[in-house]
Amino acid sequence: MAFKSLFDRMGELNSAYYKSPKTKIYDDFLTYAHSEKGMLTKANATDFYSRVKNKSQSQFQIIEIGVGNGAFAKGFLDEIKELDKKNSTAVASKIIYTLADFSKPVLERAKKFNEDFQNHGKLNSYLFDASLSDCKLCGEFSDKISGLVTYDLIRCNELFSDLPSQLYVKIEDEIFLVYFDEKLSPQLQPTVMGDLSELELKLIHSLPNGYFIPINRSAANSISFLSNHLKKGAFMDIFDYGFYLTRDFDIPADMWNLSIVREYNTQWTVDLNFIYLAALMQSLEKSSSVQPQKDYVQKITGKKLSLSNEKSLDYSLEVSEFEEDDSFYHLRVSNGV
């Protein structure tokens, strides 16, 4: 069997997966945005609402990159409407909400799912490929925002772990690039001189020996590009699966390496390296913070939460005796304070 880099595998497989009109995303995997209770989505809406409800500006520009079936948008917008009703405000009427995705079938389904928002605010949709490092080629969305629009909020849920990434492993003091065959069997290849930046080399050498480490460059490029279009004091919220804390490495290397890349009905996804993204944002002098996703929801709701025992990914008010960890994180990139 032929072996290819993870970057090439993900680029080929995921493009075909998301562009297929037959793809039904949440038949293949679950996300917190798709849960029935929608505690993550409601918390994100409450967070945004509390920041803008007293602002006098005439409109709020929000964009969501990687829209899934539209549930993340709908839950957010429905909660804004509920908060308006409860507090006699009119935030929803000021919102211009843009759905952006590189898959036209996915984008059309998400837009249809949210078409009722047109009765309250405005809904846009643009084609946009977040995986392209040269964002001049990213699609019609790039043409629209180039120097013309800045955003009050950029939202992304489980997008960046689907973008092509390279995978490396340190063995003794040598770093190898990890290749895969069609069945996810790995093969190590020597790295090419200059393949890793100084920051990437430093990071890999600081992490445990023998663990496959993703370097999510496509994600990093996209986050950097998008965050340049934030208004002063605005932010970009990224919710995704990955690793950041020391406790995340509390499993043997062989178990880690078997689970770092996963397949869902031909689509491949890889853990998001929040350590790398946070370090890179710092090197670019961008303000950022990382916290467990559950901590973010707890902070906004003011309630102690546990992982739900239901089939869908969600949080529960029935707090268990032991503190669980689901490896989902929230990265916020801010434009000033």
The biggest sheet amounts to: 8 strands, mixed
Question: What is the second-level CATH architecture?
Answer: 3-Layer(aba) Sandwich
Strand/helix succession: EHHHEHEHEHEEEEHEHEHEEEHEHEEE
Count of individual domains:
1
**Measured on Cα atoms, how large is the radius of gyration?**
20 Å
Structural class: alpha/beta
Description of the structure:
It is a single chain. The protein has 337 residues and is of the alpha/beta class. It has a single domain (18-163, 216-334), classed as Vaccinia Virus protein VP39 (Rossmann fold). The chain is 33% helix and 27% strand. The strands form four sheets. Strands 2, 3, 4, 5, 10, 13, 14 and 17 form an eight-stranded mixed β-sheet that branches. Strands 1, 6, 7, 8 and 9 form a five-stranded antiparallel β-sheet that branches. A two-stranded antiparallel ribbon has the order 11-12. Helix 3 (39-52) crosses helix 11. The model has no long low-confidence stretch (mean pLDDT 87).
What structural keywords apply?
eight-stranded mixed beta sheet, Rossmann fold, 11 helices, five-stranded antiparallel beta sheet, alpha/beta, globular, 17 strands, 337 residues
Q: How does the SSE layout of this entry go?
A:
Blueprint: E1 4-5, H1 6-19, H2 25-28, H3 39-52, E2 60-65, H4 71-87, E3 95-101, H5 104-113, E4 122-127, H6 140-145, E5 151-157, E6 166-171, E7 174-180, E8 186-190, H7 198-206, E9 213-215, H8 217-227, E10 230-243, H9 253-259, E11 261-264, E12 267-270, E13 272-273, H10 274-283, E14 287-292, H11 293-301, E15 306-307, E16 315-316, E17 328-334
Parallel strand pairs: 2-3, 2-5, 3-4, 5-10, 10-13
Antiparallel strand pairs: 1-7, 6-7, 6-9, 7-8, 10-17, 11-12, 14-17, 15-16
Helix pairs in contact: 3-4, 3-11
